[in-house]
Design a protein that fits this description.
globular, Rossmann fold, 203 residues, single chain, alpha/beta, four-stranded antiparallel beta sheet, five-stranded parallel beta sheet
Length: 203
C-alpha cells in the first residue's frame, strides 16, 4: 500500500505559493523523515496528506484511489500540540474512544493510567495528552501515520519512550510513518530514509 502526494501546490495567495509541484510517496511499513526550515510548508503538507486541508492543487491518493472523506480516515495526523486537536469539554475516555474503542494493549503500551481516563484535558500534561493522541490514532484501520513534531514538547527520556512504543506498534501493524522534525538526531535514529522539503518543491 502506498500514500502519494502528486504535484501538490498550495498558497494562501494566488501568487505566493509555499508549496509548488511537491511529489512525495510513503509505503506501508516505511518510516520516512521530512526535514525543512520553519515556515517552509511542512505542516501544511502534512495537513494536505491527511485530508485536513483541501484547498490545494494536485492529487493525494492511496494506491491510486482518493482518500475517503467520511468514516475512519486511514491517514492519521498527530500534531505538535495535542491540546489543539481535542475537545476540552470531553473527558479523556470519550476523546480516546471517539472513532473506535482503543485496545487495552495500546493503552498499556503508552503507559496510560486508568485514573487518567476520567480526567479533563486541562488536568493532564502535554506529554500525557500526546500519549492519548497517539493511542487514538494507532487503530488497526490506520494505514499511515503523519507525526508532525510530536515529541518536541517533551524531555529526551519521554521522547525516546514514545518513539520506541510508536515504532513497535507501526512495525506490528505495517503502518507507514512520515516523521516531521527539526531534530536531525531523532530523524537519523528512527527513520529508514530522509527527504528535504527544499528538494521536492519548486518554490
Amino acid at each position: 500500500m502506498r500514500l502519494k502526494g502528486e504535484n501538490i501546490s498550495f498558497g494562501y495567495k494566488k501568487n505566493n505559493l509555499i508549496l509548488k509541484d511537491v511529489n512525495i510517496s510513503l509505503g506501508s511499513g516505511e518510516v520516512l523523515g521530512l526535514v525543512g526550515d520553519s515556515g517552509s510548508g511542512k505542516s501544511t503538507l502534512c495537513k494536505i496528506l491527511a485530508g485536513y486541508e483541501n484547498k490545494y492543487q494536485g492529487k493525494v491518493s492511496i494506491d491510486g484511489k482518493e482518500i475517503p472523506s467520511k468514516g475512519y480516515i486511514p491517514v492519521q495526523l498527530i500534531f505538535q500540540h495535542p491540546e489543539k486537536a481535542i475537545n476540552p469539554k470531553w473527558r479523556m475516555k470519550d476523546i480516546l474512544n471517539e472513532g473506535h474503542v482503543v485496545s487495552q494493549d495500546i493503552l498499556e503500551s503508552f503507559g496510560i493510567k486508568k485514573n487518567w481516563l476520567n480526567r479533563w484535558p486541562n488536568e493532564l500534561s502535554g506529554g500525557e495528552l500526546q500519549r492519548f493522541a497517539l493511542a487514538r490514532a494507532l487503530s488497526p484501520k490506520t494505514r499511515f501515520l503523519i507525526a508532525d513534531e510530536i515529541s518536541t514538547m517533551v524531555d529526551a527520556i519521554t521522547q525516546a519512550q514514545i518513539w520506541n512504543i510508536v515504532l513497535n506498534i507501526v512495525e506490528e501493524l505495517n503502518i507507514g510513518v512520515l516523521v516531521v522534525s527539526h531534530d536531525r538526531d531523532l530523524i537519523n535514529r528512527v527513520c529508514h530514509d530522509t527527504i528535504y522539503l527544499k528538494d521536492i518543491t519548486s518554490v
